[in-house]
Amino acid sequence: MSLRLGADAVVLDVEGTTSATRFVVDVLYPYSRARFAALLTERAGEPEVARAVARVREVTGEPDAGAVRVEKTLNAWLDEDRKETALKTLQGLVWREGFARGDLVPHFYDDVVPALRDWHASGIRLYVYSSGSVAAQRAWFSSAPGGDLLPLLSGLYDTENAGPKQEPGSYRRIASATGLAPGRLLFLSDRAGELDAARAAGWRTVGVRRPGEPYFARGVGDHAEAGTFDGITVVRSGG
User: Fold this and answer.
1) Distance of CA 154 to CAs 84, 139, 177, 179, 192, Å?
2) pLDDT of residue 133
3) CA quadruple 110, 112, 116, 119: dihedral sign
4) Separation between Cα atoms, residue 219 and residue 62, nearest integer Å
């Protein structure tokens, strides 16, 4: 079944929506785990690293935690798949280097990139809202197989600059930043809680259900759903 929705912008979740969660868990997580120690020692003086480390110490209540202790905390959060901003920031820095060196090539489902190019060509604005940091998003989309996708994107949002993904206030902040009416924003995600929060903020929503993804069996509640981006037609105001 094909869905036809009116919207002036599409906001994309990443894991489970544009890209396979298993790639993140099986490839990216081990890659960052193996490189946290070097990051925390060799780049400790960089402002972005220092802020993230300070946040780890604040969250754990260990103001004097050294690099070894911080690394242990990061790895424990990885095991929990915890959506902690400091972890996502440091992961993003590691992955950015990996993408730049060619060690890593991001995964996209086959239906995603053609749909993004078509939507952009038809005047639909595209945004990303992921628990992964903006740095990670920028590296991910700029290193896409077949070419840099960043020129297609009008903005990147994460839990630091927008807020938690299951809180309506985060979606209100994004709507305000885009300057678009909430009802003209369409959010695509595989998680019902995120879709619920977006709808509570006045957004249009579609749940993307891909077999093999962690949330597939749970469904997307009473939201419209699609199995691929091929099944979603987005029409601009007056279109």
Assistant:
1) 25, 15, 11, 12, 25
2) 87
3) positive
4) 39
User: From CA 14, how far away is CA 30, in angstroms rounded?
Assistant: 19
- Quick one: CA torsion of 46, 49, 52, 57, rounded to 10 degrees? -90
The Cα–Cα gap between 54 and 135 comes to 18
- H-type helices in the chain, by residue range? 21-23, 29-42, 47-60, 67-80, 85-101, 112-121, 134-142, 168-178, 192-200
The answer for 212, left when phi > 0, alpha when psi is -120 to 50, beta otherwise, is left
Which pLDDT score is estimated for 169?
Answer: 98
Question: Which residue shows structure tokens 């400790």?
Answer: 44
Nearest C-alpha neighbor of 190 from the set 213, 167, 173 = 213
Q: CA–CA separation, 196 vs 198, rounded Å?
A: 6
Token pair listed for 111: 């239906």
47-60 and 67-80 are packed helices; what angle lies between their axes, rounded to 10 degrees?
Answer: 70
Q: Is the pLDDT of residue 215 over 90?
A: yes
As given in the structure block, the two tokens for residue 182 are: 């909430």
